[in-house]
Amino acid sequence: MISTLHIKNVGIIDDITIDLNEGLNILTGETGAGKTLIIDSLQIISGGRFSKEMIRKGEDFSYVEVSMYLPENGQEEEENVVVSREIYANGRNTCKINGRLVSVNELKNFMQDIIDIHGQHENQTLLDINSHIKYLDGIASKDISKSKEEYKTLYIKYNELKQEINKNFGDDKEKQRELDLLRYQVNEIEDAKLKIGEEEELENTRIKMMNSEKISKNLSEASNQINETAIDSISIAIRAMEKIEEIDSKYQESLNSLKSIYYDIQELSRDIEGYNEDAYFDEEERDRVEERLDLIYTLKRKYGNSVEEILKYNEDIKSRIEKIENSEEYVQKLKKELKEIENKMEKIAKEMTRIRKEYSKILENKINKELTELEMPNARFQIDIKQEEKFGINGLDKVEFMISTNIGEDKKSLSKIASGGEMSRIMLAIKKVLADVDKVYTMVFDEIDTGISGIAANSVGEKLKAISKKHQVLCVTHLANIAAKGDYNYYISKEAKENRTKTSIKKLSEEEIIKEIARIASGDINEITLEHAKNLRKIA
């Protein structure tokens, strides 16, 4: 749910922070005080469109931020998520999720499962035909989920096979051109006779070549110093120690150590003299190393970042050559496998259609019952399920919610409903029934009570209250019956100060709620209206 909403420089809103709660949050206030701007701000933070005219006069940016508590990885524990969006007059956007920069599209995708906004003319999901099948399947999840999983697995394989068939079913000229190219690549790689580790060895040899003069000079100096100084000095020391070795055993031990050092240095001298070959390379050897490295670099540019990758690529294209050379047989095998999968998919799709048709009647009856309670007894909600020619991710069904609002009228798409009052009640009826399967956390209703009054208004309030048992609900209303049902009530007002108008918001106490209900009910606060407000509150 949304715990805190912070809005800055949106319309007449200067800088306000709203602490929201679970349940039914009611927003009321003066006309033009900024209630709609609060809903607009929720649209903005949900990735909606923004007009620079919405930026507060005299400012060059608008800022909206929400702090939310959301389930963490499907667990019962909740994590705090902070989402913000800053928009400048030049059109530049800065969107962040927990401090991480994201695009507007990423923000929209993230928020679409968190906030759902409903008003007279704006319905983010229910007017999207593609979402209707999801709602129906949510109602039928107990019976359809297993079939959907089986179908989805087959559908993925189905698309992979189709792509493979298309890739291998070119004409003979295309096949021959591809074969010629692939064979040339195989020959080029195999003629090179690459060996793993060869490049590193050549690079090491090349380094020695580049430093041959330096190597030769220092090897000679090291060899001369050992032979002319170290070995002669130790030899003299050995002869001296031999003259006294019998006097004391410790002299004998030192003599033995000197002899060991003498032999080690002789061995080291031979090794250093043997290194001289590292310092001498003829031009033919230099050319061979450079040419070999150039060949390896050329192949790496074409076929991979290392010798290992080049050799792996070679094996892949040899496999591709084999497939093309036997393409007719291979494609026939793929087509047979595809047909078998299509048969399985069709069988499962038919079963999903049967389940959907069964649950569509249940959903129709429930929504029509809700519409009757919302003073639309002649309205008839209906779910159309049509068969598509091609397999889709949800099978062969196209599901669309339809409505006829009056006796004798033809059913039509929800998006074509003209009356704002009718649309509001239809949306609320559908949302009430689908509340159990709709996973969105926060539902926002902006003046959904427009065009209704009396019994219908009371029914709308009851539906909102019922939805708030499973979702956080924010509702902007002008009706006392609905305001009376709020778990938390907020009053939005505006004031002019220093030639500027700004919005403020206040969470109302119980006494203040009663006064606000009285004001909404009659426009006047007196003993009679206060008593009426108390009764409405008591009933709620």
What is the CATH first-level class name of the domain at 2-125 and 440-508?
Answer: Alpha Beta
- Low-confidence region ranges: none
Report how far apart the termini are: 23 Å
In total, how many beta strands? 15
**Basic shape:** elongated
The CATH architecture of the domain at 2-125 and 440-508 comes to 3-Layer(aba) Sandwich
Report the helical percentage: 40-55%
Q: What is the CATH fold-level name of the domain at 2-125 and 440-508? A: Rossmann fold
* Percentage of β-strand residues: 15-25%
Helix segment count? 16
Mean pLDDT: 86
Secondary-structure content class: alpha/beta
User: Which strands sit side by side, in order, in the main sheet?
Assistant: 2-1-4-5-6-7
Main beta sheet, described?
6 strands, antiparallel
Radius of gyration: 41 Å
**What's the CATH H-level homologous superfamily of the domain at 2-125 and 440-508?**
P-loop containing nucleotide triphosphate hydrolases
Topology:
Blueprint lengths: L1 E9 L2 E7 L4 E6 L5 H11 L15 E11 L6 E11 L4 E5 L2 E3 L1 H8 L3 E5 L9 H11 L1 H27 L4 H21 L5 H13 L1 H31 L6 H26 L8 H21 L3 H19 L1 H47 L6 E13 L2 E10 L7 E2 L6 H15 L7 E5 L7 H14 L4 E5 L3 H4 L4 E10 L2 E8 L2 H13 L4 H13 L1
Parallel strand pairs: 3-13, 3-14, 8-12, 12-13
Antiparallel strand pairs: 1-2, 1-4, 4-5, 5-6, 6-7, 9-10, 10-11, 14-15
Description:
- The protein is built from 16 helices and 15 strands.
- The protein is α/β, with parallel strands linked by helices.
- Among the domains are: 193 residues, P-loop containing nucleotide triphosphate hydrolases (Rossmann fold, 3-Layer(aba) Sandwich), CATH 3.40.50.300; 151 residues, no CATH class.
- A six-stranded antiparallel beta sheet has the order 2-1-4-5-6-7.
- The model has no long low-confidence stretch (mean pLDDT 86).
- The longest helix is centred in the middle third of the chain and has 47 residues.
